[in-house]
Design a protein that fits this description.
2 domains, Glutaredoxin, Glutathione S-transferase Yfyf (Class Pi), Chain A, domain 2, 9 helices, four-stranded mixed beta sheet, alpha+beta, binds glutathione
């Protein structure tokens, strides 16, 4: 059985939605960030970065949300959350999932925690925060342009792990000056995703009671 180490609405959310969509048994283990449990000696044994999430599947221990998402999609091909390996669609899928985790997610992290780069200097923090928001805006515009022509999902009519990943990131990005939902095609994708029982169940099980994104 899968075990997902999580904190409400953290980077576990995309793998969690996928677990619900797949319908396989899993258990959740809370990593209490309020108590800095992600840096505890015990947790560092399974995730040396001290970050959330981690997935345990028997002897396999995986960190990085996108890697977990890819692994789950591959373990359950019948769920159709990724195109078949070796197809052009798989290439497009890799592109968008990588873009989400490597570009948009990283920029959102810097926007949320600018002091990790800028230190205690308030002016530097402000510059880093504004720069990261501007870059995240540009990345969201690229996604919007893609979805407008090729949507409603990243892979057209076909739902994939990338769509769940975008929901997770868009929840974090809600406080941006231009929230993701201010873009029509992203808003449409989000509407379709938050209507899925799997998405609602995942956030509910994490204790999220407000609007998902
Ligand atoms: N690239 C990593 C990022 C994980 C990450 O930064 N998680 C955040 C929560 S969303 C975290 O654990 N933060 C706690 C910390 O950095 O101490 C992933 O996608 O798994």
């Amino acid at each position: 059985m899968y075990t997902l180490h999580y904190f409400p609405a953290n980077a576990n959310a995309a793998p969690h939605m996928m677990l619900e969509e797949i319908g396989e048994a899993y258990e959740l283990v809370l990593v209490d960030r309020a108590k800095n449990a992600q840096k505890s000696a015990e947790y560092l044994k399974i995730n040396p970065n001290g970050r959330i999430p981690t997935l345990v599947d028997g002897d396999l221990v995986l960190f990085e949300a996108a890697a977990i998402a890819l692994y789950l999609a591959d373990q359950h091909p019948e769920s159709g959350l990724a195109p078949a390996v070796g197809t052009p669609e798989r290439g497009t899928f890799y592109q968008w999932l990588t873009f989400l985790t490597n570009s948009l997610q990283e920029e959102l992290m810097i926007w949320q925690y600018p002091d990790r780069l800028a230190g205690k200097d308030a002016a530097a923090v402000d510059i880093v925060k504004r720069g990261a928001e501007s870059r995240a805006d540009d990345f969201l515009d690229v996604i919007e342009a893609h979805l407008k022509t090729n949507g409603p999902f990243f892979l057209g009519d076909r739902l994939s792990a990338a769509d769940f990943y975008l929901v997770m990131l868009c929840r974090w990005a809600r406080p941006m000056a231009r929230p993701p939902r201010s873009r029509a095609a992203i808003g449409l994708l989000l509407d379709k995703l938050v209507a899925l029982p799997s998405v609602r169940r995942a956030y509910a099980r994490e204790g999220i009671t407000d609007e998902i994104c």
